[in-house]
Amino acid sequence: MLTTLLNTVPPITTAKQALDYRSKLQALALDVEFLMTLYLHESMTPETIIEAKKAGIGSVKSYPAGVTTNSSSGIVDYTAFHPIFAQMEKEDMVLNLHGECPSQGDVTVLNAESEFLPTLASLAARFPKLRICLEHLTTAAAVKAVEQLGSQVVATITCHHLYLVVDDWAGNSINYCKPVAKTVADRDALLHAVASGNPKFFFGSDSAPHPVASKRGGDKVAAGVFTQPYTTQSVVTALERGVEMGILKEEDVTLEKLEGFMSRYGRDFYKLPQTTETIELTKGSEKILDILESEDKSMQVIPFRAGESIRSLKWTTG
User: Fold this and answer.
1) 125-155: b or e for each residue (b if 16 or more CB lie within 10 Å)?
2) pLDDT tens digits, residue range 180-193?
3) Within 13 Å of residue 180, how many CA atoms lie on the same side as its CB?
4) Of the residues 64, 65, 294, 296, which has the maximum number of CB atoms within 10 A of its CB?
5) pLDDT tens column, 106-118
6) Is the pLDDT confidence value at 68 over 60?
7) What are the Cα distances from residue 38, in Å, to 13, 20, 111, 187?
8) How far apart are CA 80 and CA 74, in angstroms?
């Protein structure tokens, strides 16, 4: 099961476009269930939301204008979308937020998330029954904000943000993503959120398979880190590193909390059935590949933590 976040060109803003795109994805991966999302756009109306819900689409993703890959059609003023959010609240849909303000004035990539938090609080107060997911949060301030808001507000955390700080991407474009990784204290707050067992925080990969050329060449480096197919193993390793560095206590990291973070909490929030599949991780000699390429070798992608040792993973159907 995979949630699609559609910052495509052009953006996918209607139920028909989403279903057509799902058909294309399904042809590439017959064994994956794709959960479709619409891109919040000025062309949308409350009727768009009604049609989406009828078509089985459960969420809408908001991208602030210009903050990340293919977000030029994103949002400048959230108040203009209050009728959309009100209809989403009625339809029991999820609003996924890329929680940053565009860089302007005193706002930079380093404080864009913190500057967005008043908007998050305002939306949660105005639409108290609207399920809101702050995607891929990166700061201690965002963790605190989500903890303090109502149960309808949750957040996802990526595996790469459990490792990275600003120095790791400032000199290495492979680790550059949006939102950017912040300080050591911010990273440690994410580790504590994962180990807390709080169901408000669950895994979201935000994995982005940008070609090598777009990550290391051209006029502008693409924002995104590719973590598939090593996300689960990387989360486990991050927590182990947290214990080794004294950030976490060994008793903080339990199998129950890991299962909740990686699967159960997110399924509960999205009102999806729990899976009967299990994962077995085995320590061994496997390493993350230095580069992944398509069968016809036309596309090459460098994965996160390339060349590092990693656990083997095996799926078992219950």
Assistant:
1) eebeebbbbbbbbbbbbbbebbeebeebbbb
2) 999 999 999 999 99
3) 22
4) 64
5) 999 999 999 999 9
6) no
7) 5, 12, 27, 30
8) 12
